Amino acid sequence: MTQTPGQRVVQGSFVPTWLLKATLYHGRGGGAGSRDSLGCKPVAMRTVAVDPTLIPKRTILFIAETVGLPLPGGGRHDGYWYASDTGGSIKGSRIDLFTGAGSGSMKPAMPLNLKKVTIAKAGKFDGCPPAK
Does residue 125 contact residue 58 with C-beta atoms inside 8 Å? Predict the structure, then answer.
């Protein structure tokens, strides 16, 4: 199989891959509201804000660098996130990871803040992002 630049093989199919600068946001500050741009409640360590001209809303994303991060309710992150939010400053090669309520929720993901992360499209979802 040949592969074009900007793509990689995942489970036997070609999936667009992005290398984007990650930033973090949280509830009670940092620009987060009680609802995301789909009208859903943001899910800690699952919701991401994207530039919809680059990554369409309702896209399931796999972010390799987040695998193993601690989750708020216990357990470890599997790397899957949901593009259900947008932001005024999220334009082009940026992605904003929602970490939860309050600035303390950002601690587990802080090593990723302002770093480039590898993102692969893993599918689409309907409705609101599931709370795992």
Answer: yes
| DSSP state at residue 129 | P
- Largest Cα span, the chain: 48
Question: pTM for this one?
Answer: 0.83
Top CATH class of 18-124 equals mainly beta
Hey, what are 52's tokens?
């919809």
Domain ranges of the chain: 18-124
Q: 106-118 as b/e, with b when 16 or more CB fall inside 10 Å? A: bebbeebeeeebe
17 touches 120 (CB < 8 A): yes
* Cα 107 from Cα 132, distance rounded (Å): 20
- Backbone dihedral region for residue 26 (phi beyond 0: left; psi -120 to 50: alpha; all else: beta): beta
Q: And the tokens for 77? A: 């992150």
What are the pLDDT digits (tens) for 50-66? 999 999 999 999 999 99
